[in-house]
Write a structure and sequence with these properties.
The complex is a heterodimer of chains A (337) and B (452).
Chain A (H helix, E strand, L loop, with lengths): L2 H28 L1 H4 L3 H11 L3 H18 L1 H10 L1 H21 L5 H31 L13 H4 L2 H25 L2 H32 L5 H5 L5 H16 L4 H23 L2 E4 L8 E3 L7 H28 L10
Antiparallel strand pairs in A: 1-2
Helix pairs in contact in A: 1-4, 1-7, 1-9, 1-13, 1-14, 4-5, 6-7, 7-9, 9-10, 9-13, 12-13
Chain B lengths: L2 H18 L2 H21 L2 H34 L2 H35 L6 H30 L4 E4 L2 E4 L2 H5 L2 H31 L4 H23 L2 H12 L1 H8 L5 E2 L3 E8 L4 E8 L2 H7 L5 E2 L13 H31 L6 H9 L3 H15 L4 E3 L3 E2 L10 H32 L19
Antiparallel strand pairs in B: 1-2, 3-6, 4-5, 7-8
Helix pairs in contact in B: 1-3, 1-15, 2-3, 2-5, 2-7, 3-4, 3-8, 3-15, 4-5, 5-7, 7-8, 7-9, 7-13, 7-14, 8-12, 9-10, 10-12, 12-14
């Protein structure tokens, strides 16, 4: 496997890690106001992600940093091309972060309610925007002859990408509800399981629609899977995880959460499997063929060093992350003073 | 320079200066909290544990503000400085992702354990988590400063076509520029945390509340502050200055307002640079001191701005004033903290209300000194973004318009205003509430596990 392909796999791994880990706290946030019936329940929901959400968000920085090191042209073109959408993401991340961290600082109903709304709305919009972004990556962007583009909202908000946004909201809501079912007890847990089941149904329907739409928008999407049959393991894995999630919801909360994590990672892996070796395709009629793992890549020496260092770093992180998550195992208790 | 580049510079300057207000406290405070936890573990004195918990609350809101304002920094390299990312990404990307993977993961994950896990883990693991938070914060600073050092003095690369290529990771990490820049940054951060801690303690002693905690804060803050303020001058500041003279003579000339190359260059204590007449107005100088600081010889020849091409000079006034503000404040900190340290050793500090007033009121000034130091570093590098390799004007995104950037700059200003006000409100409330009773005896018992 070439170095460029190894980096493609690494990037997909990091994105999947981000989607699974920050995905559950984003999803929990998206359904926060509906799931938590009163202020105390909402406090418990936030307590369950309090110690981990920040570490989860670091995966996003990991994605950003590795793009700079390995695929600087992709980083430069996409971050400047999606300028306003990305700034919106930054502002929402800011509001969401202070929503979680500042909510518990003052014990006043108005203060807590206000931050609950900020946290939930920002999480919902972020889930939507990340799905929209993934939709646009599949859909392709209108490159000019210099390999740049400017994603106006007319470009961003195409039907296909909106479908991606909805799929993301439904899937992450289900994922977040599975986390809540795992961490809560009593009536809140029962409600979380119902939310998970409803989210599952919505996600399954939207996934089917998305697959159908992909055939129209990106007819070459299935090529990799037909020419390399072993890759079919990814969509099979994804669908199996989807089915297992439904089976375990209400039966075994831990396995349901694991299965829904597998499903979220599977969607990302399927997109990666279909796109390879493209990173950001061009829409038909563009003056530039799109960015792939070769024309977006950093020089060989930079990629090689970064990959070695990254592998060491990620192994180290996995060890203590696994240890730290064990500190928080079991039902969640109140954590914020 | 086009309007779009100027808009991007305003946005970067505003967001980075606001962002740095938070990590400048957390890097040093993390270390001081680890010190408090170590004293608690070794002496078994619960007052130090409660002091550590108090500062952990300050740390938590500061860290949160630092994180949410820090993500826009990494993203702006792509959004507004796309040509910089294309050109320099293969090198600066290394240290940027290493920050995330090696430092930031550790800091944020162990912070969760430190803040919320005291009753779930034993005292040793809790102490370890405090140490890991401090380690993560300080290491995170290293990777960021190493990134900056490469932009000041590029090493370990070769130019390959339209971008640079990394040739040696070791050279990047052991850049001669970072060797003293990084300790200088950490010393500045330690001074900030120490003076904030000592100032808070002085506030408690002066208002006769939480006096036991107040004495701990003043003792630890003044001790650490006296040591670190001296370290920020020597060796870190002095040797970093030498590196600047060697690698960036234009920056050094601007810092000192040295318009003409001369032997026995004098150091201006005060004076106002006048670029029209190419001289310092009303200067008070120490003869030969710049020559000595730069080369260890009072009559050495130092390059002035007249020997630097006009299109490679930084804006003199900003760099000059920022440098003099930093050095002036740093000198005052050394004097204040040495005097307070003297009274502390003599055992009379807690009764000297005048001195406590000075300690309390000086707490905000290290923020100004640290920001001024970074203004010297960054404005002094102009017109380059990567010194000698890429100009700022050639580093911007070509597909982002002036209007788009001013729109988002206004958005950042509004959000950061709200964030800044909320932060100050919460900081004041936490200080007003004061340290709680030891774990197990007060409201902190709610830290415990189990359903509410």
């Amino acid at each position: 496997m070439s170095l460029n392909s190894a980096w493609f796999v690494m990037l997909a791994f990091l994105l999947a890690g981000y989607a699974v880990l920050d995905g559950f706290d984003l999803g929990l946030g998206a359904i926060h106001l509906l799931l938590g019936k009163d202020r105390d329940e909402r406090a418990r929901l936030i307590d369950s992600i309090g110690p981990v959400w920040n570490g989860n968000e670091v995966w996003l920085l990991g994605v950003g940093g590795s793009l700079v090191a390995a695929f600087p042209n992709l980083y430069a073109a996409s971050f400047s091309g999606f300028y306003l959408a990305l700034m919106l993401v930054l502002w929402l991340l800011l509001l969401r972060g202070i929503g979680i961290e500042f909510r518990h600082q003052i014990h006043n109903p108005l203060w807590e309610d206000a931050w609950d709304v900020v946290f939930s709305a920002a999480s919902l919009l972020l889930a939507l925007l990340f799905g929209l972004a993934l939709g646009n990556v599949l859909h392709g962007v209108p490159f000019d002859d210099r390999g740049e583009f400017r994603a106006t909202f007319a470009v961003l908000l195409n039907g296909f990408s909106l479908l991606g946004g909805l799929l993301s909201v439904a899937t992450l809501s289900m994922h977040g509800a599975c986390w809540a079912a795992l961490k809560m007890d009593g009536s809140l847990q029962a409600r979380a399981r119902r939310f998970a089941a409803n989210g599952w149904a919505a996600s399954a329907v939207l996934l089917a629609a998305m697959i159908g739409a992909s055939v129209v928008v990106r007819p070459d999407f299935a090529d990799n899977f037909t020419s390399h049959r072993w890759l079919l393991i990814i969509p099979v894995w994804t669908l199996a995880a989807l089915a297992l999630t439904r089976y375990y919801i209400s039966r075994d909360d831990r396995r349901a959460f694991v299965a829904s994590s597998g499903y979220v990672a599977g969607i990302l892996a399927s997109v990666a499997g279909g796109l390879y070796p493209m990173l950001l395709p061009a829409v038909a009629g563009s003056a530039f063929p799109g960015l792939d793992i070769y024309n977006a890549a950093a020089p060989y020496e930079s990629m090689r060093t970064a990959l070695v260092v990254y592998a060491i770093g990620i192994s180290l992180v996995s060890v203590y992350l696994a240890r730290i998550y064990r500190v928080w195992k079991g039902k969640s208790g109140p954590v914020y003073l | 320079m086009s309007d779009a580049v100027i808009a991007g510079r305003w946005q970067f300057a505003f967001t980075i200066m606001f962002h740095y207000l938070f990590p400048v406290l957390t890097m040093g405070l993390g270390v001081l909290i680890a010190v408090l936890k170590t004293i608690e573990l070794r002496t078994g004195n619960a007052a130090y544990g409660s002091a550590a918990r108090f500062w952990a609350r300050i740390f938590a809101i500061t860290f949160a503000a630092g994180v949410v304002t820090g993500i826009p920094m990494e993203f702006q390299f792509g959004t507004n400085w796309a040509r910089f990312s294309r050109y320099a990404g293969p090198v600066v990307g290394q240290t940027l992702f290493m920050e995330g993977v090696f430092a930031f993961f550790a800091e944020s994950s162990f912070l969760g354990v430190f803040l919320f896990g005291e009753s779930r883990v034993g005292p040793r693991v809790h102490w370890l988590s405090a140490v890991m938070v401090a380690f993560g914060a300080v290491l995170s600073g290293f990777f960021i400063v190493a990134t900056n050092a490469w932009m000041q003095h590029p090493v370990g690369y070769r130019v390959a076509g339209d971008h640079v290529e990394l040739t040696s990771l070791w050279a990047l990490l052991s850049n001669p520029y970072v060797r003293w820049q990084y300790p200088h940054v950490i010393a500045g951060s330690m001074v900030t945390a120490s003076m904030v801690m000592a100032g808070t303690g002085a506030f408690y002693l002066l208002s006769r509340r939480h006096e036991e905690a107040g004495r701990i804060f003043v003792t630890v803050g003044v001790t650490a502050g006296a040591i670190c303020s001296a370290l920020s001058l020597f060796p870190t500041g002095a040797f970093h200055g030498e590196a600047i003279t060697r690698f960036q003579p234009a920056k050094m000339a601007a810092m000192e307002g040295l318009f003409k190359t001369q032997t026995g260059a004098p150091l201006a204590i005060i004076g106002m640079p006048d670029r029209e007449r190419q001289e310092l107005m009303d200067p008070i100088v120490v003869p030969g001191l710049i020559s000595y600081l730069a080369y260890g010889n009072f009559s050495a020849r130092v390059t002035g701005l007249n020997d630097i091409p006009a299109d490679q000079q930084p804006p003199v006034e900003i760099v000059y004033y920022a440098y003099h503000i930093m050095v002036g404040l740093g000198t005052i900190f050394i004097a204040i903290l040495a005097l307070a340290g003297f009274f502390l050793v003599r055992g009379s500090l807690f009764d000297r209300r005048g001195m406590l007033w000075v300690v309390m009121l000086s707490a905000p000034f290290p923020y100004i000194a640290n920001e001024a130091g970074w203004v010297v570093a960054e404005v002094g590098r102009q017109p380059w973004v990567v010194y000698g390799l890429q100009r700022v004007a050639a580093a911007s995104s070509t597909n982002v318009t002036t209007g788009m950037t001013y729109f988002t700059l206004l958005g950042f200003m509004g959000l950061y205003l709200v964030l800044g006000l909320l932060y100050l409100l919460l900081f004041a409330r936490i200080v007003d509430e004061g340290p709680s009773t030891p774990l197990g005896a007060g409201p902190s018992t709610r830290l415990g596990a189990g359903p509410r």
